[in-house]
Design a protein that fits this description.
Mean pLDDT: 86
Shape: globular
Largest sheet: 7 strands, mixed
CATH superfamily of the largest domain: Regulatory protein AraC
Number of strands: 11
CATH architecture of the largest domain: Sandwich
Strand order of the largest sheet: 1-11-7-4-10-2-9
Radius of gyration: 21 Å
Number of domains: 2
Order of helices and strands: EHHEEHEEEEEHEEHEHHHHHHHHHHH
Length: 355
Amino acid sequence: MLGTTMQRNHSLSSDSLVQTSGMVDALISNVLENIRLQGAVFFAWRPSWPYATGVPNERYFRDLILPASDQVISYHVVIEGPCWATVEGEPPVRLDGGDIILFPHGDAYAISNQPRDPSDKDIEPARQFFTLMAAGELPLVIENGGGGPGQNRLVCGFLGCDRYPWNPLLDGLPRYILLSRSALEGPVNDLIDIVLRECGHPWAGSRSVMRRLGELLFIEVIRQYCQNEGLTNNPWMRGLADPLIAKCLSLLHGRMAETWTLEKLAGQLNCSRSILAERFSRVIGVPPMKYLSQWRLQVAARLLRERPDKILSIASSVGYESEMAFSRAFKRSMGVSPSAFRRSSQSAKIGENRD
């Protein structure tokens, strides 16, 4: 899936989306809550030219900063450009002052003053850097590069998230999202200003504040994407712009534990089973019942990580009538039983807290 560049485009707005704004807000909030964002690393970067820094695929450094997360998402706010970003296998893109670039799938990429592809040679330097940063042994402002007269200024954020077994919003995002600050609306610009002030005058608790700001910035970037580009490029967001599909999604998310059938859903929506099945599958990409099964397991995975409840209690809360049926479905999707998944998550969390 290719990257996307977002400029302000009000023609992408949908009357249907506006009419159901409360429902849409609840759905987006529900999906974002179930990726369990965790701020990991956040810092200001002032490289002088020439420079080229590669960030390998997140699997090479996730264990160093957030072992309890499924994936690391990274983004960069360009305060002073120009510079270049190159995602593995994609053409380089120019970044100017005010741009924000987000890498939602943890792909390898490089940031440099001239276009440069990421490389396997980036892996070890990146691991060394993240080891020191996670241990608090590096300052909040990193200055490096070739020492020339040219310079860039960026704010860099790395977040952990839970995206398995399935998150419909994240899975539908492109390999990168590039937003121009001139196109941004709402509090995102205020957050960037707060970040710059915090970097410029760090004091007690700054690292914790920066991590939380990083989480908020990510959410704001996703909101901006959803309100604009997401209406045409993201299957799940297209569903929210369709009144019938949006109401169906609202039922499946809001009453997840209910015993749903296609016939019951269609009855609640005052439409035929065939129309609902065809339209939902065409817009979202999977049938309604498969969507519900996948989302139940996504929520169950979060509950197993966060709560000490018995497996049967969690199974019931997401709509399974028996622990055995839930365990079979969970293992088929995740490759491990619910109890083994919980033990693994708790071990990773202990290691993360020790760091």
